[in-house]
Structure formats: structure tokens, C-alpha cells
Amino acid sequence: MIRFETEGRPSNIGFPVRRLLPGPGLRSVGPFIFLDHMGPARFQAGTTEGDVRPHPHIGLSTFTYLFEGAMQHRDSLGTAMRIEPGAVNLMTAGRGIVHSERFPADLRAQGETVQGIQMWLALPCSLEECAPSFEHTPRHALPCWVENGAHTRLLAGEAWGARSPVTTHLATFCAAVELEPGAQISLPVWPERAVYLLDGTVHLGAATAHGPRLLVPETTGEVRLVAHTFARLMLIGGEPPDGPRYLDWNFVSSRRDRLQAAREAWQAGHFAPIPGETESIPLPGTD
């Protein structure tokens, strides 16, 4: 019942990250072309340890969801938004945006743990050069329910008869799920879908899996997932984008030449800056 599975690639970028997409054997799932599990991590008080300095994006939407802690988002549109567990930050880069992601001083002082998911979604070709935008959806605005030991929060798209208010540009679904031992959930039927099992043990059809692991079911039809232990999941899927997408550093496009143009623009300082921020991450290979 499992067509593909991977533990991803652990790394440390100032805090631990597990990269699930893209990777060998699986480049994307529906519109999702990038998936990182961030943390869990704690950061020293009075430092900027772990902060992600200003950096650019084009041709994608970034999707941030936290399980623990908090992050402070700032961008070149002038947005300043703190995200906390249960909310969604969606930033659509379009023709170009710059943002930073920092860990707040109060969180550092209290020794709080930070853990979350960041994903990138492809934009349809017609919107790759749209005006950049930012959208914050608070926890209380997202559909959530508990049924037979399954705690579900619908983060984006449509599933199980519910709809999230988060903007999507391609047919999408994304949900955060917690399962008590013995609880089960039916996976929504979409052309492409995957289960990221953060922790716990589950049965997916006749197969058994232990987290952390990204799982792609063998069939696109009805599949039931049953928790053997307490388990935390991210469910993602939807329609694939309208053609291949190419990734280069923080840039995504359906055109390879656009990626090179974005690299040159960042190196030349042509992206709009974040108000009040003077740092930046240099183009790889130039620092």
C-alpha cells in the first residue's frame, strides 16, 4: 500500500532541518515542491542564533505552519507578522519578494522550543510573475474538528467536506492531524497525495510505518490510516502544476532563463529591501 517512502535528509542550518521534498525519487506532491521539517530547537537568549536573514524568492508561495514556539516574519512589502502554533503564513513571491524569519527574544529568554513545517507551492504559469503578497490566517479561522480520536485541522484547500480560507492558486489540500492510539482517518482522494508522519507508528493499509517518514500511498483511491501509537501527521496533495518547475536556490520557475535572471538581480541588489533590515544572505558561491 506504500508506493514510496523516505526519511528525508537531516541537516543543520543554524537549527535542525529534515528535508523531505525535493529528494531522490520524489520531486513533488501535487503543487508542493518543497517540504522542510524545522526543529525541534531552542535558541540562546541574547543571540540571533538560528535567525534566517533577508533572502529572495520568485515564482512560488511559501507556507509556514508551527507546532511549537513562534517566528517573526518580515518582508519587502512592509509586512511584520508573528506566527504561532495553529496559524498559517502564506507568502506569494510572484515576480519577487525578500523576507526574513527570526526567532523572537521572548521565546529565547523563556527557553521555548520551536518546531514547524515550511513548504513551497508552485504557482500556475499565468501567476509566476504576479505581484507579491502576504496572507496570515489565524488559528481560529481554520476548520478543525475531533472525530473518534482523530484531531484534524484543515490548513489549505478542500477535504472531508470542509474548506480552508487560505488562498490556493492550484487545486490543493493540506491538513495537520493528531491521532490517538487506535484512531483512524481516510485520506482525501486526490491525483497526488502524501503523508508526512512526524512521529508515532501507523498502519497505512497493510503496511506499517514509523516516523519520521514521508509516505506516498500506492493507490489514489480510498485509503485508511490507523494509528498504532499516538501519531502526528501532515497530509498534503492536490493537482500537479501545469508543466515542470525548476528550482535554483530560493527561486522557482517554469523557465530556466528566469532563474538566472533572478540570480543576477539578487547579486546586483535589484530586489526591494525589507524596511529596517540591512543584512542579507549572499547568492551561493559569491560570499
From TrEMBL:
Alphabetically ordered keywords of this record: Iron, Metal-binding
Pirin N-terminal domain boundaries: 15-121
Cofactor: Fe cation
Matches recorded under Pfam families: Pirin, Pirin_C
Highest taxon of the lineage: Bacteria
Range of residues in the leader sequence: none
Entry's cofactor comment: Binds 1 Fe cation per subunit.
Alphabetical list of InterPro entries matching this protein: Pirin (IPR012093), Pirin_C_dom (IPR008778), Pirin_N_dom (IPR003829), RmlC-like_jellyroll (IPR014710), RmlC_Cupin_sf (IPR011051)
Sequence positions that bind Fe cation: 55, 57, 99, 101
Pirin C-terminal domain ranges (all copies): 176-271
MF GO annotations: metal ion binding
Family, similarity comment: Belongs to the pirin family.
Name of this protein: Redox-sensitive bicupin YhaK, pirin superfamily
Organism: Gulbenkiania indica
